[in-house]
Design a protein that fits this description.
The protein is of the alpha+beta class. The chain has 12 helices and 23 strands.
């Protein structure tokens, strides 16, 4: 049971320093899973020590995979091969990890044994039919509670490849189908309405699985072998997002964020902030483990509202709470459309951000698939995070420019994606206190 934790965020004078944010959560999840299914031993460096990724590791260990932790941020995964997982009668607890549950559903659909995936209260409310329906087309049998977790995955099903066009762009759904495709007869092809993050495709290639992919599509066939490889996990762009926004909106600030993952399917917020006038430079660009990486330097700059190009939406779906905060600090209004996916994240993020910003004096016009945020000053108030880590961290940033203290209720789940956020923020000038 998670202990309740509340914060207050106070007006900040200036933000300065170098901020090393934790490893990328998406890469950490996938490195564990592919390392487990590979032949040989894989070493993961820069692993995110968050509750979500630890939950995925614990699930794989219950399935017979030995995973060592020689140091903080390191994992050594002793692969058991594609068909080496062992069934367990224990329920497989994914905690708050939607990525973990959806990807594991695809992975477990091809096993010979039955499995049951469960999650915490928040995850138990998140829709799973978008994954289970296309997996059923491949021959999987997965029972849900009216489309919600727990997921009861039947073993011993003969999977076959399909060509599937996603009705809604989702890297998690795409990844689940590709992982099931490893066990399927024939070819599995996933086509997207908009390109999404290609972490799974890049990592499958790094682990030696033949895969053909380009923005908006991916294709592979079953029957090959994954070979162990070492993975250097870049710093998580979604975690960097809160500091990019904070550095942009607090006068006089300058922050450096080293070794941040810059996968083009992940950095929509960077483009959006630049369109708003943000001063963000990329230095020391390089590639690590198939992923583009760079150091980000953000300086305070006056922002202006924009009509967000819908093409950026899939590439910043986790960063919208941070964008909403930037929009309140901007001159004019910022219009967001095409973001209905935000209503089915850890919380209804559109409603949670609109309600929270209004409590601080902002004017926000909510729509079914977006919002119009009017720039203007913020005052103090009390915010409900609804147990959503990104909502909590976004309002921690909002408090830096509010005229009074911002109390944020229910912040314990920040540890799922960003352990140490409180301390790291305060080290560079945040004014966070426990309430």
């Amino acid at each position: 049971m998670v202990t309740r934790l509340d914060w207050t965020s106070h007006h900040a004078r200036v933000l300065k320093g170098s901020v090393r944010v934790p490893g990328d959560k998406s890469v950490s999840h996938r490195a564990l899973m592919l390392g487990a299914l590979a032949e040989g031993t894989s070493r993961i460096r820069g692993f995110l020590e968050g509750e979500d990724t630890r939950a995925t590791a614990a699930v794989l260990q219950l399935l017979g995979v030995r995973i060592d932790a020689p140091a903080d941020g390191e994992r050594v995964v002793h692969g058991v091969g594609l068909h080496g997982l062992r069934g367990t009668t224990q329920q497989l607890d994914c905690g708050n990890a939607g990525t973990g549950m959806r990807l594991l559903a695809g992975l477990l659909a091809g096993q010979e044994f039955d499995s049951t995936l469960i999650g915490d209260e928040s995850l138990s409310k998140r829709p799973m039919r978008r994954v289970t329906d296309p997996l059923a087309r491949m021959g999987a049998t997965i029972e849900t509670q009216d489309g919600l977790p727990p997921l009861h995955v039947r073993g011993g099903q003969a999977l076959h490849g399909i060509a599937y066009t996603l009705p809604v762009a989702s890297a998690q759904v795409k990844s689940a189908l590709l992982l099931a495709g490893l066990y399927a007869q024939g070819e599995t092809e996933v086509i997207e309405p908009h390109p999404t993050r290609d972490y799974t495709e890049r990592m499958l290639a790094a682990f030696g699985w033949p895969i053909d992919f380009a923005p908006g599509r991916a294709r592979l066939s079953g029957g090959h072998t994954l070979r162990a490889t070492d993975v250097d996990v870049p710093a998580d762009f979604s975690s960097a997002a809160f500091f990019l926004v904070a550095g942009s909106i607090v006068p006089g600030s300058e922050l450096r964020l080293p070794s941040v993952g810059l996968n083009p399917r992940r950095t929509g917020l960077l483009q959006a902030l630049r369109l708003m006038g943000a001063d963000i430079r990329v230095e020391n660009e390089r590639e690590s483990g198939g992923e583009p990486v760079g150091d980000l330097v953000v300086r305070h700059a006056p922002l202006h509202g924009i009509e967000l190009p819908e093409a950026l939406v899939p590439d910043m779906i986790d960063e919208f709470p941070a964008l909403f905060v930037a929009a309140t600090a901007a001159k004019g209004q910022t219009v967001v459309r095409g973001a209905a996916e935000l209503r089915v994240k850890e919380s209804d993020r559109l409603a949670a951000m609109a309600t929270g910003l209004r409590a601080l004096g902002a004017v926000v016009d909510e729509t079914p698939d977006g919002a119009t945020i009017h720039g203007g000053p913020l005052h103090g108030g009390t915010i409900e995070s609804h147990g959503d880590h990104r909502i909590a961290m976004s309002f921690a940033a909002a408090g830096l420019i509010a005229s009074g203290p911002v109390r944020i209720n229910d912040c314990a789940n920040v540890a799922t994606s960003f352990p140490g956020f409180f301390e790291l923020g305060n080290s560079c000038g945040f004014e966070l206190k426990t309430a």
